[in-house]
């Protein structure tokens, strides 16, 4: 769907992006991860031609974006940025309606779409549609930004640090919303972050940038594995990475058969981190997993799990 072929860009002496090649498969959520200044935004902005590569090319659905009209290209790609960039004098509904109006949709269709999108991002249309951006919280504004980016139903979404200005709880909530929206809409999403935990929480695939080059790319749990590239290990120590991995590994994949009478119960869709937190809270070394067949997890099982590559679901 999105393919970088030897993409590069210099700014004077700075090689912001150098010889980057990889593909973002259709329908996947790929996170571009890297330290500040590693070239993530520059690479991402090549997709919607806010930056032109001076080496290589970027293909969208097999077509070199250099040959596409930039305005038409951008209307077909949702773009969400950290500062949201809502028009301050327009209410929420009008902000969300920007691209459909540019595309000449009739007013009935625009209104229905605005309502549908505000509901999709978890904002009540009656409450929020008429409000100005200045009256919104950061998290609400970011939801509006996401609704606006999705408005014309573009197959591709580019998201540049969309949640980094938010407090941790709001951020986790919006990450969960984005995962749900991704599942429901099947969009191809490329998202920039410098936060390893966010990458693990969201990504199907991760591309790690280091000093303009691609340091690693592949399925999330494989890239953020025991052999994580130095760029990742500098961002997060291996033991912290192990803990982060607990947060995305499903408890069910590591459960053992058999009941444990009296053990606290864990929902069937819980993660290993949920299992460990329940054990800590209850002062117990095992929990049972709720579901049709009796299963349980032991603390030893949880601690051995983060690097047990062979049993990882989806890796
Ligand atoms: N328009 C520009 N003019 C000059 N230098 C630029 C320009 N855009 C980016 N750079 C330089 O290119 C390098 C990569 O920048 P880029 O914004 O892509 O990094 P990033 O990984 O997205 O960083 P951050 O996480 O801090 O946003 C940096 O050294 C930056 O200073």
Biggest β-sheet: strands ordered side by side in the sheet? 6-7-8-3-9-10
For the residues shown, what is the average pLDDT?
Answer: 89
Shape, principal axes of CA atoms: globular
Distance between the termini: 21 Å
Largest sheet: 6 strands, mixed
The amount of helix comes to 25-40%
Number of helical stretches of at least 4 residues: 14
Number of domains: 2
What is the CATH C-level name of the largest domain? Alpha Beta
Compressed to H and E, one letter per element, the order equals: EEEHEEHEHHHHHEHEHEEHHHEEHEEH
Low-confidence stretches: 310-315
Short structural description:
By secondary structure, the protein is α/β, with parallel strands linked by helices. It folds into two domains: 235 residues, P-loop containing nucleotide triphosphate hydrolases (Rossmann fold); 63 residues, CBS-domain. The chain is built from 14 helices and 14 strands.
